[in-house]
Amino acid sequence: GELVVKENPRSFPHKSVGRRMIIVSAGVAMNLVFAAVVFMIVFMAGFQTVPAEVGWVLPGTPAEQAGLQMGDRILAINGEKITDYQDLKLLVTLANPDSPMALTVERNNPSTGLGEEKQFSLQPEKLEGQSTLMIGVGQPMTNTVGYVLQDPNQPTVAQLRPGDEVLAVNGEPVNSFYDLAFRLRQATGAYCQLRVRRSTTTPGEEATELA
């Protein structure tokens, strides 16, 4: 069988060098074309990103020393506009370790309810246990459940579901992730009574609140 294939004028070894190059590279070229088409579809359809908002600030870090606060929205770094949290991480990681960076930040004014632009200067540094430059801020978090580890001691109907928005813990309202974390810490490991808003996948039905 091998001898017959080698003697066949249509076999791969009988092709010219140029044709063999085209045959070998055809698969790679199609992978590139397919990837380009997928990227076009994704960007045309749109996708959700995490905003470049300060969710929390680590004590003693450049961010705290510069005066950044929870809720600040970072608009630009060194004059370069950023749109989401990934942009923020990338620019901080690639920052010059010997030169401070200038941050343009939008901060809400409680008295007027409007955002005001502020300028900050800080020097990214490698925090303890980290190998890349950081400024000491984290992305915003919400009181919406993202993942559930099932409790074998509770019935299925009493379990939380991904997407549930926690509204209250033991009758105490929660408006943010930090309220939720504080209320759960107060329980010191005991079971809590939660009130949640659960979205439905049934068309025409609105989200419901469950106790």
> How would you describe the shape?
extended
Q: Please tell me the overall pLDDT.
A: 84
**DSSP strand (E) fraction?**
15-25%
SSE string: HHEHEEHEEEEEHEE
Number of strand segments: 10
Please give the share of residues in helix. Answer: 25-40%
- Strand arrangement in the largest pleated sheet: 3-2-4-5
Radius of gyration: 27 Å
Unreliable runs, pLDDT <50, ≥5 residues? none
Give the biggest beta sheet.
4 strands, antiparallel
First and last CA, distance: 73 Å
Structure description:
There is one protein chain. The model has no long low-confidence stretch (mean pLDDT 84). The protein is an alpha+beta fold. The chain is 28% helix and 21% strand. A four-stranded antiparallel beta sheet has the order 3-2-4-5. A four-stranded antiparallel beta sheet has the order 8-7-9-10, covered by helices on one side. Strands 1-6 form a two-stranded antiparallel ribbon. The chain is extended and about 85 Å long. Strand 2 (73-77) and strand 3 form a beta hairpin. The chain contains five helices and ten strands; from the N terminus they run H-H-E-H-E-E-H-E-E-E-E-E-H-E-E.
Please give a quick description of this structure.
The protein has 211 residues and is of the alpha+beta class. Helices cover 28% and strands 21% of the residues.
Could you list some keywords that capture this structure?
211 residues, alpha+beta, four-stranded antiparallel β-sheet, 5 helices, 10 strands, 28% helix, extended
